[in-house]
Structures are given as structure tokens and as C-alpha cells.
Known about the structure:
Layout: E1 6-9, E2 22-27, H1 33-48, E3 60-63, E4 68-73, H2 86-99, E5 127-131, H3 150-179
Antiparallel strand pairs: 1-5, 2-4, 2-5, 3-4
Helix pairs in contact: 1-2
Amino acid sequence: MNGNAVKIYAHSLPEIDSDFDTIGLLIARPLTHEEALRAAGALGYALARMNGESLGDPVSLIFTPASTYLTFHFDSTKCRRSSYSFEEAFRDAAAYIETGTPVRKSDRAGRGTKGTRLIDGIGAVSLTILLDVDVDAGPQPTPPAPAVSAAQRALDEARDRLNAAQHAYAQAAIAYAGAGL
């Protein structure tokens, strides 16, 4: 772990020469929850070839109107890097996120699985892989408006009508007093 977040763009992956313990995946478009989980699965599938610990579920999923941000705990020191590098794993992950994992060539995973994919892709996306990220940070979503019940809405409307009526009465009283009647 180097303590500094490292940005890796899927189209130009630099050599990764230090250990890391967290991964951030920033996808530059809003995803559905299902698409976000498929992207996470594709990243995990690519990292599984490193023969280390599995990626696991995302620590956080942050959905914004313009992007989706996922964070994971991942101990890179437990991986064997002799034949397959992190650069290759992240390059493969980018491809799997777009097109899906490789097509199965046999029914070994179960009857009728030949010709299918373990994980379907989500289509072409611009993505950034970040290392040593704060899993609690990232783009903050706009909180949804609080739900208002029908009863509360009716009370609010009645309060507004009462305020309008009181205001009209006050204006009429002032006009009456000003007329000297």
C-alpha cells in the first residue's frame, strides 16, 4: 500500500509496482444496480486469475446522475504475479465489463451452459480504476426528497389554505379600519 490513490485508465495501463489494499471503479455513466453488480463481477473474474483472495462484494455503490462508483477491499499482497500481472487483469476487466466474460466452451458449469457467459457485459463505457482509495469517499449522491404521506400532504394543503384565509381577513380588517366605517 502506498497511501496515495493511483488512477489507472483502462485504455492506458501503467505498470503497477506497489501493493494496494483497496480498489475503486469509476464508470462514467449511471448504471442500474444490476449493471453495477455485473461490472463488479467482471472485475472480480479478471482478478481471480491472480490466485489471491477473491474480490468480494463492493464495500460501497454510489450512484450519481453522471456516473457510478464502486469500492472494494482487496489485498494485493496475497496474489501471485508470476505469469499474469495486475495490468493484464485490469485490461481484461475493462473488456469483461464491456462485453462480458468469455463464452463457455463446454457444459462443465451445468447442462445448457455451453455458449453462455458467466457474466454479461454492460456495453461500452469509460472507466477508471483507482488503487488505494478511501472506500468511504467518492462522489456523493443527491439525497432523495423525503417521502410525504397523503395525510401529511392534506395537512400541508389545509395549513396553506388557512394561512391564505387569515391573510385575506387581515387585509380586509385593515381596509375596513382605513375606510373609517
